[in-house]
Automatic annotation (TrEMBL):
The lineage of its organism: Bacteria, Bacillati, Bacillota, Bacilli, Bacillales. Pfam families: DUF4352. This is DUF4352 domain-containing protein. It comes from Planococcus lenghuensis. InterPro entries: DUF4352, Immunoprotect_excell_Ig-like. The keyword Transmembrane helix applies. Keywords: Membrane, Signal, Transmembrane, Transmembrane helix. The chain crosses the membrane at residues 37-56.
């Protein structure tokens, strides 16, 4: 036989475990049982609050270096990416093209100065290069998509090509078959030339490079 207990409201005896009193209808369950959802939310909040209090005493570790003026936080610097420097003859893939600087010459004169040739200015010298462009994509490439080609000293100073000297060098070498108005079709290669006039004394010192797009090729 079920154990009898008194109703919380009318005090009449009712069976233990019933939800409501048969006489007065009073709900016999406690607050937690009547509000299970709120009870669950409250329990979760309580657990979270206790966890936060428990971790409040922890400190984030930092690497410090003490000196005569006090402790200084040391920040580990990310290693710098080492720049790749190519050499003459290396094949560079730049966007849709393969670029190869095949020849470098230092010249005082180009061709016959009296007949469409070019002589270096006083104290100057010519740095002349020949390079090949090959379209390795599946569609034509226009000249405006070609990478820029310039001379670079070790300080990063950029030198533009001498147009007159470059034209004379192209005639003298007879290897220039570059396209000016036409697109370069897939799998087709052309050879171009460029000549840069610089100080002869300065060119004899330090390192010099050809920069193709963002890539560097060491000349000397």
């Amino acid at each position: 036989m079920s154990k009898l207990v008194a109703c919380k409201a009318c005090k009449k005896e009712i069976a233990k475990g019933v939800k409501k009193c048969p006489s007065c209808g009073k709900d016999q369950r406690n607050w937690l049982m009547r509000h299970k959802i709120l009870s669950t939310i409250g329990f979760i909040f309580l657990i979270s609050f206790v966890s936060i209090l428990g971790s409040g005493g922890e400190e984030t570790a930092t690497v410090t270096n003490s000196d005569t003026e006090g402790a200084q936080t040391q920040t580990a610097a990310a290693p710098e990416k080492q720049e790749t420097v190519y050499k003459i003859g290396d094949v560079l893939t730049i966007d849709q093209l393969e670029v190869t600087v095949s020849v470098f010459e230092e010249l005082d004169t180009i061709g016959d100065p009296d007949f469409f040739g070019k002589k270096a200015s006083d104290g100057g010298t010519f740095a002349a290069i020949q390079y090949t462009l090959k379209n390795v994509s599946d569609e034509p490439v226009g000249m405006f998509s070609y990478p820029t080609v310039s001379l670079l000293d070790e300080k990063g100073t950029e030198y533009s090509a001498d147009i007159d000297a470059s034209s004379s060098y192209a005639v003298e070498t007879e290897i220039d078959n570059s396209k000016i108005l036409s697109d370069l079709n897939p799998d087709i290669s052309v050879t171009d030339t460029a000549v840069y006039e610089v100080s002869k004394e300065k060119f004899a010192q330090g390192e010099w490079f050809i920069q193709v797009g963002n890539e560097k090729i060491k000349l000397k």
